[in-house]
Amino acid sequence: MTTKTGVIETSATLYAYTNEYISRQYGFEDLLREVARRGQGPGVEVVGFQSIRGFPDVDDAFAERFRELIAELGLRPTSLAINSDRFLKPGQPVADDVLAEYHRRQMRAAVKLGFPILRYQFATPPSLVRELAPYAEDLGLKLGLEVHAPAHAHHPLVLAYREVYEQVNSPALGWIPDFGGTAERLPQSFLDASRARGVPEGLIALLLEIWPEPGESHVRAGKLREIATRDGHASEHIQAVSLIFFILAKNDPRGWSELVDRTIHIHGKFYGVDADGREEAIDYDTILPIFRDGGFSGTICSEWEGHAYMVADAFDKVAAHQAMCRRILDAA
Amino acid sequence: MLPVERVIGDGGLSAGPDGGRLDVRLPWYRSLPLSTVRVEALEVDGAQIPLESLRFELDGGSWTLAELEDQTDRFWFVLDSARLVIPGLSLAPGSAHRVALTISLFPPYIPGMKRANAQSETLLVR
After folding, report:
1. What is the CATH number of the domain that holds A31?
2. What pairs with residue B92 in β-bridges?
3. How confident is the prediction for chain A on average, in pLDDT?
4. Less CB within 10 Å around the terminal CB: N or C of chain B?
5. Mean pLDDT confidence for A196-202
6. A87 vs B109: CB contact, 8 Å cut-off?
7. What residues of B are in contact with residue A47 (Cβ under 8 Å)?
8. CB distance A275 to A185 below 8 Å
9. Contacts by A98-104, CB closer than 8 A, 24 or more apart
10. Which residue on chain B is closest to A83 by alpha carbon?
11. Which among B30, B33, B118 has CB closest to A88?
């Protein structure tokens, strides 16, 4: 059997430009204009709760303005990122039917804005995905699970969704791989930023020792916290380095091959492209051909997440990432 | 300090008819329901302000900090400034004050996560 080579298009997620946005340098419209001006689209992903006042609902005026802008700028909505806010009060989960309706509101928002894909996370349980699949089909919407760190194709979390996907077998259900789950190492820019904010070498060494160990993120982060607290490190420094356990995990990237068939969009998670044109933490040269040669056609959005620990021009970061992706994808 | 860590807004400290007002920001990348936001501590010139005396104002609404815990349907849009009203705090225009504020968040889609953000600044009363 031969598989048709996939055609993968680079694109943007506004999440990459979070610092430009929350520092009030660029408003929502400014970001869209700059994405278009710098050719970082045409596909664009939006985080509903980040960009849209009134979300999980979208009012008519916002929807109309968004559609006008997209048309004017030559952009194309790819994926609307939603959240499953089960813990509206800390520690007190809302009932399943309340959570289901919370998702349906966000699904209707996606349709109203013209997004063909809705990105959901592990906080949306597999049983709810099963329940929402027929509604997604009725709306003509695809639901994509962001397979995010610490998970990967074989992680027990993902296996539970794989089982539901196989049972339901709906064209509305798919994957959005996020490469943070299959990192090779910690990004140098993260270590540099940690040192710049005063994290002592002893705590850096502890991080480098514990991060690659097997086990769940919260268990390893808890171990680091316990040892670091005992060693007298500042809570601010411990919080700063603990972040990385929840956004990056070390796993074999070749596992992605098992998810290619149902992949509907990709989160090109990255932290920085080094002088040799390689991502600091994630082995794109291994990962991207798996999707291309496996027949995935669709969008990969450049999801720079270095903004969580450093300030830099996200548009420049995205430009470097898209150039790297094109180099790899266009090679025979 | 990263943009996402800032809790003191550009509006800074101002004097109002009923006391001082502090402009505050949501230290997260997305909007959150007010029920997941906790004002943990506020100091002005080294003195702790009793938290039960504070009012939190946003978008035409006004709550005590205890009342915020029930506001599951009121979202704090990530770009909007809120105000902490500090009753009885008398501030001379142009005077300088050291303000330290800690706000913690419990992102509602990440079970068990608590993130504390502390910022202290010397602010001139507007």
Report:
1. 3.20.20.150
2. none
3. 96
4. N
5. 96
6. yes
7. 29-30
8. no
9. A99/A128, A100/A128, A100/A131, A100/A132, A102/A56, A103/A128, A103/A132, A104/A132, A104/A135
10. B109
11. B33
pTM of the predicted model over 0.90: yes
Annotated active-site residue A148? The verdict is: yes
- Rounded to whole angstroms, the Cα distance separating B41 from B100 reads 8
Cβ–Cβ gap A50/B114 under 8 Å: no
Q: Which of A222, A244, A266 is the last residue of a domain?
A: A244
3-state secondary structure of A70: helix
Q: Give the count of beta carbons closer than 10 Å to the beta carbon of residue B99.
A: 21
Specify the 3-state DSSP secondary structure of A118: strand
Q: What is the structure's pLDDT at A218? A: 85
Contacts 24+ apart (CB under 8 A), A36-41: A36/A73, A36/A74, A36/A75, A38/A315, A38/A318, A38/A319, A40/A10, A40/A11, A40/A12, A40/A302, A40/A315, A40/A318, A40/A319, A40/A322, A41/A11, A41/A12, A41/A73, A41/A74, A41/A75, A41/A76
- From residue B104, alpha-carbon distances to A91, A309, B36 in Å are 15, 18, 8
Please give the ipTM for the structure prediction: 0.95
pLDDT tens profile A125-145: 999 999 999 999 999 999 999
Residues A273 and A323 in one domain: yes
Question: Is there a single domain that holds both residue A14 and residue A65?
Answer: yes
Q: Are residues A61 and A198 in the same domain?
A: no
Residues 6+ apart with CB under 8 A from A95: none
A144 and A69 share one domain: yes
- Taking the C-alpha atoms of residue A1 and residue B83, their distance in angstroms, rounded to an integer, is 64
